[in-house]
Design brief:
The complex is a heterodimer of chains A (127) and B (144).
Chain A lengths: L15 H7 L4 H28 L2 H16 L4 H16 L5 H29 L1
Helix pairs in contact in A: 2-3, 2-5, 3-4, 4-5
Chain B lengths: L8 E5 L3 H13 L3 E5 L2 H10 L4 E5 L6 H11 L8 E5 L4 H9 L4 E4 L4 H12 L12 E2 L5
Parallel strand pairs in B: 1-2, 1-3, 3-4, 4-5, 5-6
């Protein structure tokens, strides 16, 4: 079920219910993996940006694949799909729309990171 | 004969550190000793140096190196009897066929349902039980 937060009525970009089930409702583990993701995702996005600029298929595939895998742990479908689009472009060597695809991923990842940070603050204030 | 200590050891080989952390914590809570490695070379070194009771192996590590780990462990006398549960981001039938032919014991899609993973490990590691009914299982991850 989407969670609405006033005043923007934001849709949850990761599946918190599934994630907590996967973690055995372990809030400490949630905090650990969110921190791990927040540390590792920006460098991967940067690698993707560089690979797109250089038209470097292997590097683009590797970074997009790693980011997709990492986002999948949070059931973050939008980021997964955006990264997958770049993976496919890398596999096919089709870079025509890669910059747009990168921007889509950037926006989706930014939103995911934002919501994960909010989740961390909620956890901290609850303690 | 494989001598087992009271606490069984699971070797997790995956370059996804988030998933490694999740699996590691959950499996430790389930009573296993867990060793985590992030690349193929380390996986092979660890498996040969101190053979674990089971391996959870990402088949899609960079460069297809997960397949090399599977092949090497299943081809060595020292490690061929160790149950290997393969994780993959896709259910490409070709991939399932490949890992089956290389001797994988189970195949789970990512992110794996951890309760299912624990059940498979328990079944595979039960004393005297070397076969899970139905052979290699293909499990799809929870619906998004």
């Amino acid at each position: 079920m989407p969670v609405h937060t006033s005043p923007l009525h934001k849709v949850e970009v990761f599946n918190k219910a599934l994630l907590l089930r996967q973690l055995g409702n372990d809030r400490e583990l949630l905090r650990d993996i969110v921190n791990l993701f927040l540390e590792s995702a920006p460098p991967l996005l940067s690698d993707i940006k560089k690979a797109v600029a250089r038209v470097d298929s292997p590097s683009l595939f590797e970074a997009a694949h790693a980011l997709r895998g990492s986002a999948r742990n949070f059931y973050a479908h939008t980021v997964e799909q955006a990264a997958l689009a770049l993976e496919v472009m890398a596999q096919k060597g089709h870079f025509l729309d890669a910059e747009n695809a990168y921007r889509t991923l950037e926006v989706a990842l930014d939103e995911l990171c934002c919501q994960l940070r909010e989740e961390l603050s909620r956890g901290d204030s609850a303690e | 004969m494989i001598l087992r200590s009271d606490v069984m050891t699971i070797l997790i080989a995956d370059d996804d550190r988030v998933l490694c952390q999740v699996l590691s914590v959950r499996l430790r809570k389930a009573g296993y000793n867990v060793v985590t490695v992030y690349d193929a070379m380390q996986a092979i070194i660890m498996a040969f140096r101190r053979p674990p009771d089971a391996v959870v192996l990402d088949i899609n590590m960079p460069g297809g190196t997960g397949l090399q780990v599977l092949r090497q462990l299943k081809n060595s006398f020292k490690t061929s009897g160790i149950p290997i549960i393969v994780l993959s981001g896709s259910v490409d039938p070709g991939a399932v066929e490949t890992v089956t032919s290389l001797g994988a014991d189970e195949f789970l899609t990512k992110p794996p349902d951890i309760e299912r993973l624990e059940a498979l490990l328990k079944a595979r590691l039960s004393i005297g039980n070397t076969e899970v009914p139905g052979g290699l299982a293909v499990q799809h991850s929870a619906k998004k």
